[in-house]
Amino acid sequence: MKSVLKLVFSSLLALPLTVNAQQQNFPEGTVRNEHNINGAEWPRIGKDNRAYFRVHAPNAQKVEISFRGEMTKEADGYWTLVSKEPEVEGFHYYQIIVDGVSTADPDGKPFFGMGRWVSGVEIPEKGVDYYSIKNVPHGLITQSLYYSNIRKEWRRAIVYTPAEYDKNPSKKYPVLYLQHGMGENETSWANQGKMNFIMDNLIAEGKAKPMIVVMDNGNIESFYLLPGETRENAMERFGGQFPDILVKEIIPHIESNFRTLTDRENRAMAGLSWGGLLTFNTTLNNLDKFAG
């Protein structure tokens, strides 16, 4: 037992030296991607907004990073790639493709996009901090489950409540229904979209009223054709049930389980990309229920 403990402590003492040695080999001017799991140093982001990738796959014949190209194999069994051009500021999805098989990066936190669970790199936008976590009161992100009679399935709404919600038990709040884009799901705005930090900051600065934000699945996670279906028919079907689900099921569920203002003037909807189309189709056909 003493020998084992001695070995463990010796390993721990050597760990900082190993970490420091690895840090010296990092490309100059780079920082770890903010969406890496704890302890993972790759991918890295350069000052010029290029992304640096490093993947361990010693037995692979070919490794690629989606949208960026083929990686170079190093002598130690790692594969590396640097973006050919600076990445556009913002959040970007990526996958590792090993011998033709696409997978999420095991060193990255999972995000749902591109119709599957993938990884992401964040290229910070210079000169702004509206989506950064700050020392302000923070709201809560929770999930609320309900059964959809339209879809014949259990569903969940992701719900943001402002920081003051639990401190004012008699106060009711306006509601924003916020929809994700194509190939994403109900988690996307809260995860990669950082909507909770955006709302926290806007409310703290007095630029937005405290409100509840509801994010649900628009049924546009993946696009496919049914047997005998044309692409045009599929496009019409894509997310086609959602307006009814929102009006007949989600809104009643939210108003039954959260303290909401239920009049038209305190209910709005917005969306990204295909979520914008769902917003258009929902609100313009229900002008008695939405003010914006």
UniProtKB/TrEMBL annotation:
Keywords: Carbohydrate metabolism, Glycosidase, Hydrolase, Polysaccharide degradation, Signal, Xylan degradation. The keyword Transit peptide does not apply. The keyword Ribonucleoprotein does not apply. GO terms for biological process: xylan catabolic process. InterPro entries: AB_hydrolase_fold, Esterase-like, Ig-like_fold, Ig_E-set, Mycobacterial_A85_antigen. It holds the Pfam family Esterase. It comes from Bacteroides reticulotermitis JCM 10512. Residues 1-21 form the signal peptide. GO terms for molecular function: acyltransferase activity, transferring groups other than amino-acyl groups; hydrolase activity, acting on glycosyl bonds. This is Endo-1,4-beta-xylanase A.
